[in-house]
Amino acid sequence: MTVNYSSTRGGENHVPASLAILKGLAADGGLFIPDQIPALDHSLAEFARMNYQETAYEIMKLFLTDFTEEELKSCIAQAYDSKFDTEEIAPLAKADGAYYLELFHGSTIAFKDMALSILPHLMTVSAKKNRVDHTMVVLTATSGDTGKAAMAGFAGVPGTRIIVFYPKGGVSRVQELQMLTQKGDNTCVVGISGNFDDAQNGVKKIFSDREFAAELAGRGYQLTSANSINIGRLVPQIVYYVYAYAKLLENGEIEDGEKINITVPTGNFGNILAAYFAKRMGLPVNRLICASNDNRVLYDFFCTGIYDRRREFILTSSPSMDILISSNLERLLYFCAGSDARKTAGLMAELAEKGSYTVTPEMKERMKDFAGGFATEEENAAEIRRLYEETGYLIDPHTGVASCVYRKYVKETGDRTKTVIASTASPYKFSRSVMEAIRGSQEGKDEFELIDELEKASGVPIPAAVEEIRTAPIRHDRQCSPDQMKAEVSEILR
């Protein structure tokens, strides 16, 4: 079965996977969506006997149908190798009755590694397939983790450049240092005087500027994206939900066919959308619990059917979720509108023009797979402390949001379905927030003092990704305002 891709807004149709990966964003500003979601073609018992790499091939071959078996297996082998510090790639840790899916064992200790380790390889193959002779310029906005993971993935990859924009002062110090010390002559990172939404909107404007695209093409460059809007990011994320279910089955934690719940801390909606795709493929999933922090725009949306970004932007201890415009939600809207691209485009136009939109009762009914919840800063810190004191298991503030929302969900609904919680980052990436949660104020201590104390508290060795930035030189120092982003890209590519 061939799977092609179309824009959620109707402007491009029946695009092969490799070209959708190269484009990143459709020409009309929409997101590429598969024309059909394929069903799992192996039994759950068969998946339980596969390792991560084998699972990745069996899932990704269903979506990337213009890749040969040799091409796809080569991409997978290069991506999921010794850069991950556990053989399982995505191990499950059981704590206090829930299963924490640890997605942070890659080279940058965050879940973005799971997809961004393979995206450069998928993109390189895609460029050859489509006879691209321009240098691919990966243009990305980050709320903290995507930037480093993308730069690490693309650093030194022939025929590519990567430019990352991040909100200056809106990420943790470890996240920032990971980006600012990134090696590679083809990498560049720019801090902007705004928030993540400003960075994301700026990147989208650049992508939709056809005159600028033509100007860059004249210089030998072609823009593409490594954000979660790229279908090459979304498809690899489906893999770890299927793998997690299979491991629960293999370990005797669930029966074959038993439904599970999945809780995901989310801001841009890509990670939980991948779980939704897994469910649509036939994975036995009951509820998808969407966990928000104080920027609770998604929680309000699932409660009311009204998406309203006209609210205060709150900086929290879980910065990768500090987002008011959840780009990947557009893909869910498309499905829930009955694959009506005109309807989806209309809602997106309303969001751009008015700052809000309201879905129909029929669309809201089609979203009943999802349950929304949120955790305040105080509740998040309390949950990190509670879990640590009761079990010895230490989690980061994003996973803390998810864990807190899960406990609230169980209390409110009585639903005790076995639950996988996506653990999206290592506590070491947010050492100050974690240490303050379990020990109180840490005023006066620098980041690396806290990291050393965190090692003693957790009993988990400091990851190499953190240790290496302790003395690494700063290599990037560019800054600009949101309205200068296009000029900054032009200057970098001179």
Plain-language structure description:
The chain has 494 residues and is an alpha/beta fold. The protein has a domain at 92-109 and 232-460: Rossmann fold, CATH 3.40.50. The protein is built from 22 helices and 15 strands. The mean pLDDT is 96.
| Secondary-structure class | alpha/beta
- Morphology: globular
CATH hierarchy: architecture of the domain at 92-109 and 232-460: 3-Layer(aba) Sandwich
Query: What is the rounded Rg?
Result: 21 Å
- What is the typical, i.e. mean, pLDDT? 96
Strand order across the largest sheet? 3-4-14-9-10-13
Q: What is the makeup of the main sheet?
A: 6 strands, mixed
- How many E strands? 15
Low-confidence stretches: none
Q: What is the number of helical segments per DSSP (H or I, 4+ residues)? A: 22
Percent range for helical residues? Answer: 40-55%
Strand content: 5-15%
- CATH T-level topology of the domain at 92-109 and 232-460: Rossmann fold
Distance between the termini: 44 Å
CATH class of the domain at 92-109 and 232-460: Alpha Beta
Summed up, what is this model?
By secondary structure, the protein is an alpha/beta fold. The chain has helices at residues 17-23, 44-47, 52-63, 69-79, 112-116, 119-129, 146-154, 173-180, 196-208, 210-218, 231-250, 270-281, 297-304, 329-336, 341-354, 361-365, 377-391, 397-413, 431-439, 447-458, 464-467, 485-492, and strands spanning 5-7, 32-34, 92-95, 98-102, 135-141, 160-167, 187-192, 221-224, 260-265, 285-292, 306-308, 356-358, 370-374, 419-423, 478-480.
